[in-house]
Design a protein that fits this description.
- The chain has helices at residues 2-13, 18-24, 29-42, 63-75, 81-91, 100-109, 178-192, 216-223, 240-253, 261-277, 289-292, and strands spanning 138-143, 147-149, 152-161, 167-173, 197-200, 227-230, 309-310, 314-317, 323-326, 329-332, 341-346, 352-356, 359-364, 370-371, 376-379, 393-394.
- It folds into four domains: 2-47; 63-109; 138-292, Ribonuclease H-like superfamily/Ribonuclease H (Nucleotidyltransferase, domain 5, 2-Layer Sandwich); 309-398, no CATH class.
- It is built from eleven helices and 16 strands.
- Helix content is 31%, strand content 18%.
- It is α+β, with helices and mostly antiparallel strands and 404 residues long.
- Strand 9 (323-326) and strand 10 form a beta hairpin.
Length: 404
Amino acid sequence: MSERVKFIAKYLEGEETFTDLCELYEISRKTGYKWVKRYNEGGVEALCEHSRAPRSHPNATPDDVVQMILKARRKHSLWGPKKLLIVLKRQYPHVDLPSKSTTGEILRRHGMIRSRRRRRRSSPHKEPLRAYDNSNAVWCADFKGDFPVSGKRCHPLTISDGYSRYLLSCKALKSTCAAPSRRVFELAFREFGLPVAIRTDNGAPFSTVAPAGLSRLAVWWIRLGILPERIMPARPDQNGRHERMHRTLKEAVAKPPRSSFRAQQRAFDAFRHEYNEVRPHEALDQKVPADVYQPSTRTYPRRLPEPEYPENFEVRKIYPNGVLSFARTQYYVSAALRGEWVGLQPLPDDRWKVFFAHVAVGIADPKNVQDRGYRHFAHLVPDADDVIRWHGRKKPHERKDPKL
């Protein structure tokens, strides 16, 4: 804009020819005459950039059709574009109506459609799902849909072995919080040992919107040497064996529900006994799951082991507020990792890749640091790789620097 004003000022002085003036400002004569014409018609304000959008469009929806759509929407405020077009086509069969997407855009432009709030989802589990090779290769866990019991909501937490279909646990819980769920898993670990992996959906308490989808329950599993697996959103078929068991469970003990939580738990225990030891399973050649399942040889440890990292990693402990302090900068990681040891792998571009055990949490990038006066603060940069494997591990208490 300032260059155009200078051009017009030079033009009004008349000291140079128009051709020389255009060469001085590196524009064509045609462009120069355009700015002179605009200045003569509207003054300095006319030198502002004009919209390049076409003033008319041959395929634009006529105004009378737009008003017809808006009138139908006011009459049926809960109807979407598809239903509105069907009704309008019946009333006005000879009118050329727009498509569903154009109708939706018309309603949105006039404020008749609210934009949906974007739902935050947990990070996808990018590793391939393990096969049901043998007992305890993959445990399946989920909350069966809640239902009312004695004026409260009952949330049945179920755990099964994917290979043998053995129902390891079925407990009636009053919520989906992490603490009661952890007690159920701990009882299962003490009785049957540790599996290689546990497959769940992306809901609480198995996953969160934190980096790598980690939750307090998943962090506990990782420290036990168990790999948390999560199916894709809206893909219950990836945990189909467990979902099929839920259907049988619902028909047997949830329709109708029992009169109290104790009675409901007794019903769950009776169902579990029948499902494991009496009811033949077609996928097992009509055997019962108890004939196929074998407890794990990995026992539940008395002391929770610490994660191990390679020799070239820097090891730090996450603060109780979920913050990682490293290189004079505080990076917010996740509250799910509070009090846990993480490893930082140096990258060639002066960045650091942050791991919790074998799970890649994110990247600490010094270039994204914000100076807040009393401290430098940043968030971890999301990383595409979730899992790596290495050799030559070291434990946090074996670190060399006493200041760490």
